[in-house]
Amino acid sequence: MASSKTARSFQVEVVRSGNWWSITVPALDGVFSQCKRLDQVEANAREAIALMLDVDETDVGPIEVAVTPPPNVAGLLESLEVSVATANDATKAAADARRQVARLLREEGLPMRDVGRLIGVSHQRVSQILAG
Q1: What is the DSSP string of 61-74?
Q2: Per the domain annotation, does 2 fall within a domain?
Q3: Beta pairing partners, 12
Q4: Is the same domain home to 62 and 94?
Q5: Which of 131, 4, 104, 111 lies closest to 55, judged by CA?
Q6: Pick from 71, 89, 121: which residue ends a domain?
Q7: pTM value?
Q8: Fewer beta carbons within 10 Å, N or C terminal of the chain?
Q9: Is 3 within a domain?
């Protein structure tokens, strides 16, 4: 088998087809594979690319996977992504506010137990918050 000096990267496109995920490689006509689960896409695509190019699988560079979800859930997945991002932002903002309030309450001379009670955590957690 031929070995390439520079491993070429490939984008693969994945769509649901019945009970399978169909894998195509737009840069290589005729390269097609399928798998049952998304965690199998990269290995199956790498194998198909290596067979087409007559190279060892280790000579195939990075594989970028673009999954097209089933149409009936595509919009919901986008909404979920936005919701998760919003929740993560809110969690970070709450942690920042908790840290700021804990610091200010301690500067006011309140004991750790009182700070914990006011911000809704244990006094041990207050120590961790202030140390972070």
Answers
A1: --EEEEEE--HHHH
A2: no
A3: 65
A4: no
A5: 4
A6: 71
A7: 0.66
A8: C
A9: no
Domain that holds residue 103: 78-131
Spatial separation of the C-alpha atoms in residues 12 and 10, rounded to whole Å: 6
What's the number of domains the chain is made of?
2
Which residue has 């089933």 as its token pair? 70
Q: How far is C-alpha 51 from the geometric centre of its chain's CA atoms?
A: 29
Six-digit token pair at 4? 């390439």
Cα–Cα separations (whole angstroms), residue 14 to 5, 57, 106: 28, 19, 54
Confidence of residue 5 (pLDDT cuts 50, 70, 90): low
Any long-range contacts for 73-76 (C-beta under 8 Å, 24+ apart)?
A: none
* Mean pLDDT (whole number) for 2-20: 84
In tens, the pLDDT along 32-67 reads: 999 999 999 999 999 999 999 999 999 999 999 999
Task: Check whether 129 has a pLDDT greater than 60.
Answer: yes
